[in-house]
Amino acid sequence: MDMKRDYYEDIRLLDSGPQVFWIIVLLAALAVFPLFAGSYLIYTVNLMAIHVIVALGLNLLVGYTGQISLGHAGFFAIGAYATLSLMIDAHLPFLVALPLAGFISAGFGFLLGLPALRLEGPYLAIATLGFGLTITQILGRLDFLGGHMGLQSPPLNIFGWLVDSDAERYAVIMPICVFLAWALRNLTKTRVGRAFVAIRDSDIAAECIGVNLTYYKTLAFAVSAFFTGIGGGLMAFVLGFISPHTFNVMVSIMFLAMVVVGGLGSVLGSVMGAVLITWLQQELARIGELPYLGPVLTELSQQFFTLSGLPNVQYVVFGLIMVLIIIFEPLGLYGFWIRTKIYWRTWPF
Amino acid sequence: MKKLLILAAVIAALSVAGAAWAGPVQGVTDTEIKIGQWGPQTGPAALWGAVARGTGVYFDLINAEGGINGRKIKYYMRDDGYNPNRTKAIAKELYENEKIWGFACGVGTSPGMAVMPYIIKNNIPWVGMATGSPHWTQPPKKTIFGVYPLYPDEAQILTSYAIDTLGKKKIAFFYQNDDYGKGGLEGCLRELKKRGMTLAADVPVEVGETDLASHVMKLKKAGADAVIMWVYPKHAAIMLGTSAKLGYRPQWMACSTLSDVALMFKITKGLWKGMIFGNFAELPDSTNKLMLKYHRAQQKYAPKERWGVFFYAGFGFVEPMVEGIKRAGKDLSVDSFVKAMETLKDFQGIMGPITYSAERRQGIKQVFLAKCEPDIMMVKGKKITYGKGKRLSGWLKLD
Amino acid sequence: MLGQLVTSGIAIGATYALMALAMVIIYKTSEVLNFAQGDMAMLSAFVAYMLLSDYGLGFVTSFTIALAFAFALGAFLEFAFLRRAKEPNLLGLIIITLGLEMMLYGVASWRWGADQKDFPFPVSDFEVHQLGGDVVISDLNLVTLGVAFALMILLFLFFRYTKVGVAMKATQQNQQAARLMGIRVGRIMMLTWGMSAVVGACAAFLIASTDTLDPNLMWTPQLKGFSAAVLGGMTSLVGAVLGGFILGVVENLFGGYVSVEFKSVVAFAVIVLILCVKPSGLFAKHYVRKV
Question: C4-18: buried (b, 16+ CB within 10 Å) or exposed (e) per residue?
């Protein structure tokens, strides 16, 4: 957007005065939010925050490094199961178990990154898809992880403070989310982030100028898996119960949708994409109850369709929204945002 | 932003009006009781969505007859697509925004498990979950009342029937590789262990699997003469088809989730003939007075619905809840409801005899067995063969 | 048992092969991974079902109309949605096809409900022929195999020897140049999608007759078809079909001898291993990119 005049401007976290102001306002709003909102809304926002974390991780891999992954539900599952089993079996406190689960997930990310060195495009998509499916299968088999019955999450205890309600969980999740967003933004402005972008733009050329593909590609997978693992660990507590079937292929696909619809290669894009898709998932389920549209749809159903199938309209709407966003703005929601900013910047000319 | 403001305004208004609001019990007024249900109306499990719709028609029937003790039931049905995230959100939304009194039925073990801690914490009545998993009632919880007979118990009954009445020697178990299938397997193994026998073959199947040739080969190799199926309709159909093709014909037995005889006969193209299956509710063509009444209600309120087991299960699972509310009388609260429920002894609607007590929250412990026989009916002048269930036993219980 | 497992593997592999063919047709022309494949086919199967049971039309009429519907559906989706995307990248196109898939799923579920239905088919899965020893293969399996091979050969000849086929290959290699050479790229794309939808619909009819007809019918076959296409090479028609057979046989052998639980997982593991050795699949040419 603005021209950067020197290196230090380029790596600055926030670009301008007004941006700092708005970030502070946002953080203040986030801090105060749970005091006003009902438990249902806070629960939805918790889900959004977790999805933001995952979207950030996936965006690092897909948007910044140009890889593709249809198996991120696998890392999500690993993070969730690792956190719970470290807390239940190894009796580690939450604040130790969560990052540790992230690192375990990162280890698996590294493993997935190895075949990724040779593959690209649809071939990589299938390899990651297979990985996602494999993880679910294996987790379902391991009895010490609850097998097919799943695991109940234990009470969450941080230094004596029992985290029981949604508002309290929010107080744990949101700071982690903000921290990780800040960390990712910083990461993209460092040497490592630039190496990722170089790989995305042209990996052969990147190798020619000295970017070690093996190291950076597997690192991208590992960091992405770390983020997703943390998200998974937090999700285990928000849901209260996890089972292998919670982490299926559709979950992976939803993550990918969040990233692409939001905007590849931008932190703000991931946030917007995650918020939008989570909100749509929860709200569209009630489409039959919209004030004006509801009765119209019900009438339509009785005439031409089946009434029992009415809730499926949510899929039609959801799909349509996704398709329209990508058609009209390949850069996703972030693209809309940038366009709006440019428009208003040069208004009224 | 707007939603937040509206929500804040509503909460403020409610808290101001709260003091003057009639009745301290949430979801109950002198004229109304609010009851909610989640269910998979979309997605891979959508065929169980019929349960929630059945409950809706049941409540319509009750309201038409004047409600319970003068209170009409306001029913909230939500789609969770079998996704535990959504189920939890739905439970919160219904309880906190819509202020419902209790939950009815609810399909799915994972979704239910996600919601159970919330229900226990808030002391919400929950009756008739549509799964036979032991999670809900063992150990018993104050406000949670199970109706559906437990999967392990039913499997045990089927196994002992196979051995004692049918004289089968080699029993095999074909099951879905999750909580549901494994529950059945556990019951079968329990019964076999009691008799000092072992399972001839243990064949799990993954949820998305569409090719069962290797599963059939495994069963065939083991030479089992009776196979108990603990899967969903799709797999049952593919299994029977593949087995017929590969020339393997044991005595098939099935779980009560497959008790929709007419549907199963149709989708297996007639191979369902001879299947012996468990039932948790009356057969669709039963002449039981309540069944006829409910069938008439379905024709009146939901004429386009199919009169299948899972639709009228939505009636049966909620019958004890309605009875409990009735017995609690005018002074309805969570505690009076729980006490009233505990007085139910061998209460029977269209399902098995339901009993609760201070320590017992598992309502039904019995199933009856039926066999599929083909029958002919005339539809639009053409002869159609359909599957009918013939009762083989009374309500069997475990000793 | 080995013989039966292999035979069944080839039988089921034929259905994977058809789905893989459908995917490869589109990929050969535009490098798009079409996730809507399965549901386009499923919708056509439902249309056929509707014609067969509600309108009482005969098999040949119903199937022909349903295939025509499939063609129209494919062409329409390409025209209305894919073409409108401005400078899309691979991921954007994947998301568009995913969105389309959801829409089609929603429409089918809305119209027909979620109950399982049985799909009548003229060829029975129960009439079997003995192949020697204990091994059987049913009429339906033979028909599926026949259709798979016939389509493979037809498409192969089409792409290599007809003008339209060559035009399609040109469009994939360089769209701009193709346009400059006078190829009507828009029409080619519509034709491609239509053809792919027809092949998918054939697969759906065959699968629906062994399985039950419901909106989730094609999800797993689509994934398996996709895997088979990747295994065989996304730009090779022959590879897609052979990939389907290999996948079916490997899965069945593993399921029969080792463990039924991990059947699909092993299939993916095998695919990944093969991809490590041959990154573009077994039968496709590996183009080395230049900077």
Answer: bbbbbbbbbbbbbbb
Q: Which of B78, B117, B182 sits opposite A148 (nearest CB)?
A: B182
Reading the block at residue A36, the tokens are 């006003």
Of C215, C248, C260, the CB nearest to B204: C260
CB C18 within 8 Å of CB C148: yes
A132 at interface of B, judged by CB pairs closer than 8 A = no
Q: Please give, rounded to a whole number of angstroms, the shortest distance from the CA of B117 to a CA of chain A.
A: 8
Left if phi > 0, otherwise alpha if psi is -120 to 50, otherwise beta: which for B277? beta
Residues C134, C112: Cα–Cα separation, whole Å: 40
Nearest Cα residue in chain C from A297:
C110
What is the CB neighbour count within 10 angstroms for residue C174?
A: 11
Mean pLDDT calculated for residue range B61-65 = 92
Please judge whether B208 and C128 are an interchain contact, meaning their C-beta atoms are less than 8 angstroms apart: no
Q: Do A119 and C275 touch (CB under 8 A)?
A: yes
C1, C113, C126: residue with CB nearest B217: C1
* Interface residue C52 vs chain B (CB under 8 A): no
The DSSP string of B73-87 is: EEEEEEE-TT-HHHH
Question: A259-318: per-residue pLDDT in tens?
Answer: 999 988 889 999 999 999 999 888 887 766 666 777 777 777 777 777 777 778 888 888
- Domains of chain B, residue spans: 25-149+288-364, 151-279+368-397
- How confident is the prediction for chain B on average, in pLDDT? 86
Helix (H) / strand (E) element for A341: namely helix A332-345
Residue B16 has pLDDT above 60, yes or no: no
**pLDDT value at residue C291:** 60
pLDDT of residue C93: 86
- Residue C48 CB contacts under 8 Å (≥ 6 apart), including other chains: C62, C63, C65, C66, C119, C201, C205
Q: Do domains B25-149+288-364 and B151-279+368-397 have the same CATH topology?
A: yes
A100 token code pair: 């540790």
* pTM (two decimals): 0.88
Report how far apart, in Å, the C-alpha atoms of C86 and of each of A169, A278, C37 are. 42, 26, 22
Question: What ipTM does this complex have?
Answer: 0.85
**Domains within chain A, CATH numbers bracketed:** 36-345 (1.10.3470)
Q: Which of C8, C114, C219 sits opposite B213 (nearest CB)?
A: C8
Identify the CATH homologous superfamily for domain B25-149+288-364. Response regulator (3.40.50.2300)
CB contact under 8 A, C264 and B217: no
Q: Decide if B160 contacts B399 (C-beta within 8 A).
A: no
C268-283 pLDDT, tens digit per residue, is 888 888 888 887 778 8
- Per the CB < 8 A criterion, the answer to whether B274 and B372 are in contact is yes
Contact A38/B97, CB-based, under 8 Å?
yes
Angle, CA C12 vertex, CA C11 and CA C16 arms, to 5°: 120
C-alpha Rg value of chain C to the nearest Å: 19
Lowest mean pLDDT among A144-158, B206-220, C63-77, C186-200: A144-158
C131 at interface of A, judged by CB pairs closer than 8 A: no
Interface test with B, best of C49, C127, C140, C212 (most B CBs within 10 A): C212
What's B390's DSSP letter? E
Burial tier of B146 (Cβ tally within 10 Å: 0-12, 13-18, 19+): buried
Q: Which CATH superfamily is domain B151-279+368-397 in?
A: Response regulator (3.40.50.2300)
- Residue found by looking up tokens 């409600």 in the block: B67
In three-state form (DSSP H/G/I as H, E/B as E, the rest C), the secondary structure along A3-18 is CCCCHHHHCCCCCCHH
Coil vs helix vs strand at C117: strand
Q: Which residue of B has its CA nearest to A313?
A: B42
Contact C260 B203 (CB under 8 A): yes
**Record: contact C102-A315, CB cut-off 8 A:** yes
